[in-house]
Amino acid sequence: MTFAVSAAVGWIVRDPDGVDETPGRDAVELRVHGISGVTAERILDHPVVVRVAGDTHAGFFRPRVSLLTYGSPLRRTYARLYPAYLGPQVLHDLGGRIGWRWRNLWRDTDPIGRPVFPPGPDGAPPGVDVDVRLRDPRSLTIDPADTVPPPIEGHWPHHTQAVYQAAIHELTDRSG
After folding, report:
1. Beta pairing class for 11-14 and 2-6
2. How far apart, in whole angstroms, are the C-alpha atoms of residue 90 and residue 62?
3. Which of 67, 18, 61, 3 is closest to 38 using CA atoms?
4. In terms of DSSP bridges, do strands 131-134 and 65-70 run parallel, antiparallel, or are they unpaired?
5. pTM for the predicted model, two decimal places
6. Interatomic CA distance for residues 17 and 21, integer angstroms
7. Which of 72, 107, 119, 164 could be disulfide-bonded to 136 (CB atoms 3.0-4.6 Å)?
8. What is d(CA 91, CA 170) in angstroms, rounded to the nearest whole number?
């Protein structure tokens, strides 16, 4: 059974793709959009999430917890404003606690979201890919069935792209 925790509204739901009753497939998936990402660390330490994930105490995460952020200003805004709470080391610690089962979807056209681990000394560890750059607009040519170019999506919607669903499935598989 896979669960998703929505930080934006603060509730736990079953995966919209259905319930997987395979033994050992319980998972906690935290999907956060935009500034809700600033609550990810606190939510991941919350006793309810820890209990759902099968852990016995906060701060110890088994391989069934994953994080999907999209349109996230964690690094761009909050790491600069609140380095003690969301600086590079805190973000690295968070990634390490969940075994780097983290994907961050971002677009160049998004005025809010950016990479959480940009290239450089404070980037993700070698061999770890957290940030996924989405093409926007999705195409530069007009669809033959349409009369206007594809829209620029900017900060919304990420969930309509195939890469979002692919990230959910990848994280679920890695959390199982």
Report:
1. antiparallel
2. 19
3. 67
4. unpaired
5. 0.77
6. 12
7. 107
8. 21
- The per-residue pLDDT string of the chain (176 residues; one tens digit each, 9 = 90 and over) reads 344 444 433 333 334 444 444 444 456 677 788 877 777 767 776 655 544 444 444 444 455 678 889 999 999 898 899 998 889 998 998 898 888 999 999 999 999 999 999 998 889 998 999 999 999 988 889 989 999 999 999 998 888 889 999 998 898 888 76
Measure CA of the first residue to CA of the last residue in the chain; give whole Å: 10
Tokens of 164: 């979002």
Query: Token pair of 175, please?
Result: 């959390």
Read off the tokens for 54: 């099968």
Q: Determine how many CB atoms are found less than 10 A away from the CB of residue 22.
A: 10
